[in-house]
Design brief:
Number of strands of chain A: 0
Number of domains of chain B: 2
CATH topology of chain A: Cytochrome C Oxidase, Chain A
Number of domains of chain A: 1
CATH topology of the largest domain in chain B: Ctag/Cox11 (Pfam 04442)
Helix content of chain A: 55-70%
Helix content of chain B: 10-25%
Number of helices of chain B: 3
Oligomer: heterodimer
CATH class of chain A: Mainly Alpha
Largest sheet of chain A: none
Largest interface: A-B, 43 and 42 residues
Strand content of chain A: under 5%
Largest sheet of chain B: 5 strands, mixed
Order of helices and strands of chain A: HHHHHHHHHHHHHHHH
CATH superfamily of chain A: Cytochrome c oxidase-like, subunit I domain
CATH architecture of chain A: Up-down Bundle
Order of helices and strands of chain B: HEEEEEEEEEHH
CATH class of the largest domain in chain B: Mainly Beta
Distance between the termini of chain A: 18 Å
Distance between the termini of chain B: 70 Å
């Protein structure tokens, strides 16, 4: 650990302020990163609780626990909270913590804006969650909030939902601007673009995606607001509007959004696998270009979500082929991860377990995505549980396992202590088994025709649904173990050295563990 | 610390410009969508105004079956439907069909019919020279009306289309039109 640089030599900077106001007023990237991560974990548990309500109702056919109206609110809020409240803030939190450490910057480029963009989130989600307690209930039209279901037929609380999305969107845009400014302008001398760690690269590209599509989301909810309150007819056929237009504008945002939720996980896994294979990442340059290609192609495929709305044959063909084209750069990435592991000195600590499961299970989700991309077949799969299985396979073992892998990988750096490896592995295996039990049977019931977003189902789907529910309860309960592991790790344990993983590379391992409140006040030399 | 490139301030100005631009682009998608649908005759949308084209030679060799369908949007209480279910015609001929509407309520109501043609790629070849859907209908309580649509099926209709369906959905736009039609006093009940 002779490489550790003591940045606090002759440093006049203050430590953290005392008390609650430290967190309200902080402009420190590590504090804000921690708040993002805790917020996202709270939202993950809340969104997960709603998922437990869904799976409890679907444990048996028939209506047992909740009424369809409430069930619809559960599916809607589960999706919205997980997408905008859990996954996206978790990655912004990781970026806040790690990007300055990885590029040798003392902090984010715009620390005050950083504080503001975090504190918008509790406001946004407070507003969103409060709708559940309003007269008429919360949003019940699915997380995709298709008009006119969400405009003409939506509950009164839809306006609050719209403002919540506006706030969360502004927060994301400010976060993205901050990350771009940090990466482009605050790299340490010698840290050229093509020397940046993959996590930084994927976040740079993700941030551009955010800036490109979050304003479109803001636009589409603004159109909804105008349709509801100001008598416009963007999506109202009676006034000359078109409900299909909603789907085009929404998915123009929505498809890049799914890559926003996965690209940072790609980056994290691209750093974790080399660390535990004790080999440099295979094909770094191709990884960078593949990420760029995925981001570019994500703008050309949105209508594959709407094959059944009646788009012309040429349109179906274009969007089908464009979608399948995305499998090429994604395949490059999977190939590179596999090749990095090939003949490596592999060891399977918890971060590596999550990363390897990520590669395998995300690929399964990618393949079911290819099946859905086949336009004529999609008419059968559309709006069935097959779609639910597909996107949970790319989001749970994709985005969320990526976040878990990152959390375990960098926890020693954050807390200064090693997490409990046995508990970490238990968390992994319980999550792995639970998640596969929950989501794999959904492929079968989906192919057999079980529709999504319905609280009741045909008797013939009963067994598979019971398995799904058991798996979901197992996965959900296991996340409390993760909470315990993190708290235990913060409170103490084996002291972590500056570089706890012998194969790890990067500037973040040159500062002590836990990372001091201020790091790289003098920029490091990058060779 | 940057070796080259923009200062942070000008970088942020450009990024903010991109944000504003993409917000505007979201709204620009609305006219783009309409233009694309019209240009390629997709989405089953027919022209919103009377067709002004030249009279075309009738293709006596070919028969096309035109079917008529009507439905009421949610909450619309008028009885509404075509006089006949279908017409078999030669492309190029002018035909007409009457739709009947009756307002059974005890209030003045305004309706707007929205047409759609299936298959959607036939929409561009279905020319309406007169249609009740070009305007809105105001019916007094208990009043009935006979509403014609006159149309020509273009002889250039793709050869594999032998049957097309003209569907109308009738929307209640009383509330929406209340201010301009001065119905505010009557429409609430």
């Amino acid at each position: 650990m002779s490489a550790v640089i003591d940045n606090h030599h002759g440093d006049h900077a203050h430590g953290p302020a005392k008390g609650l106001m430290r967190w309200v007023l902080t402009t420190n990237h590590k504090d804000i990163g921690s708040m993002y991560l805790w917020f996202s974990f709270a939202m993950f548990l809340l969104g997960g609780t709603l998922a437990m309500v869904i799976r409890a109702e679907l444990f048996q056919p028939g209506l047992q626990l909740v009424q369809p109206e409430f069930f619809n609110q559960m599916t809607t809020m589960h999706g919205l909270i997980m997408v905008f409240g859990a996954v996206m803030p978790a990655f912004v939190g990781l970026a806040n913590w790690m990007v300055p450490l990885m590029i040798g910057a003392p902090d984010m480029a715009l620390p005050r804006m950083n504080n503001f963009s975090f504190w918008l989130l509790p406001a946004a989600f407070g507003l969103l969650i409060s709708t559940l307690f309003m007269e008429g209930g919360g949003p019940n039209f699915g997380w995709t909030f298709y008009a006119p279901l969400s405009t003409t037929y939506g509950p009164e609380s839809t306006t609050f939902f719209i403002f919540a999305i506006h706030l969360a969107g502004i927060s994301s845009i400010m976060g993205a601007i901050n990350i771009i400014a940090t990466i482009l302008n605050m790299r340490a001398p010698g840290m050229t673009l093509m020397k940046m760690p993959m996590f930084v690269w994927t976040w740079l590209i993700t941030a551009f995606l955010l800036i490109a599509v979050m304003p479109v989301l803001a636009g589409v909810v603004t159109m909804m607001l105008m349709d509801i309150h100001f008598g416009t007819s963007f999506f109202n056929a009676a006034g000359g509007g078109d409900p299909v237009l909603f789907q085009h504008v929404f998915w123009f945002f929505g498809h890049p959004e799914v890559y926003i939720m996965i690209l940072p996980a790609f980056g994290a896994v691209s750093m974790i696998i080399p660390a535990f294979a004790r080999k440099p990442l295979f094909g770094y340059t191709s990884m960078v270009y593949a990420t760029g290609a995925i981001a570019f192609l994500s703008f050309t495929v949105w209508a594959h979500h709407m094959f059944t709305v009646g788009i012309p044959l040429t349109g179906e063909l274009f969007f089908m082929y464009a979608t399948m084209l995305i499998a090429v750069p994604t395949g490059v990435k999977v190939f590179n991860w596999a090749t990095t592991m090939f003949r490596g000195s592999l060891s399977f600590e918890t971060p590596m377990l999550f990363a390897v499961a990520f590669v395998i299970l995300f690929t399964i989700g990618g393949f079911s995505g290819l099946m859905l991309a086949i336009a004529p077949a999609d008419f059968q799969y559309h709006d069935t549980y097959f779609v639910v299985a597909h996107f949970h396979y790319v989001l749970v073992p994709g985005a969320i396992f990526g976040i878990f892998a990152s959390a375990y990988y960098w926890l020693p750096k954050w807390t200064g202590y090693m997490y409990d490896e046995v508990l970490g592995k238990t968390h992994f295996w319980m999550s792995f088994i639970g998640m596969n039990l929950a989501f794999f049977p959904m492929h079968f019931v989906g192919l057999a025709g079980m529709p999504r977003r319905i609280p009741d189902y045909n008797m013939m789907f009963a067994n598979f649904n019971m398995v799904s529910s058991v798996g979901a309860f197992m996965f959900g309960a296991t996340q409390l173990l993760f909470l315990f592991i993190v708290i235990k790790c913060i409170r103490g344990g084996k002291r972590a050295p500056a570089k706890p993983w012998d194969g790890a590379e990067g500037l973040e391992w040159t500062v002590p563990s836990p990372a001091p409140y201020h790091t790289f006040t003098t920029p490091p030399e990058v060779k | 610390m940057s070796e080259e490139g923009l200062s942070t301030t000008s970088l942020i100005k450009r990024l903010l410009l991109l944000v504003v631009g993409m917000f505007a682009f979201g709204f620009l998608l609305v006219p783009i969508y309409d233009v694309m649908c019209q240009a390629f005759g997709i989405n089953g949308k027919t022209a919103g105004a009377a067709w002004q084209g030249q009279e075309q030679a009738v293709d006596m060799q070919r028969e096309v079956r035109v079917q008529f369908v009507s439905s009421n949007a949610e909450g619309m209480r008028w009885s509404f439907g075509p006089e006949g279910n279908e017409i078999v015609l030669h492309p190029g001929e002018t035909h007409s069909m009457n739709f009947l509407a009756h307002n059974p309520t005890d209030r003045v109501m305004v309706a707007q019919a929205i047409p759609s043609v299936a298959p959607s790629r036939a929409a561009a070849f279905f020319h309406k020279t007169e249609c009740f859907c070009f305007t809105q209908q105001v019916l007094q309580p208990g009043e009935s009306i006979e509403m014609p649509v006159r149309f020509i099926v273009d002889p250039a209709l793709p050869a594999d289309v032998r049957r097309l369906t003209l569907a109308y959905t009738l929307f209640d736009v009383t509330e929406r039109m209340a201010p301009s039609l001065d119905l505010a006093a009557i429409h609430s009940n």
